[in-house]
Amino acid sequence: MEEKLEHVAAGHGIIFLPLSVMTFYTRPDLCHVPVADLAPNRVSLAWSAARPVRLAEEFATFVAG
Length: 65
What we know:
Layout: H1 2-9, H2 19-24, H3 54-64
């Protein structure tokens, strides 16, 4: 994340961030502007079916409940 923010601060582009990231990574050389009409994003959790990950499975069960 820091590297992405460095590129933006250097004027090499823009980045869309969730509110939680924006509030955590505050910097005096960057400006945060809310985008009201941007659809909410989705986050997915994936792991190989051939190699079960107990912690990931427990987390998925917890989040789904």
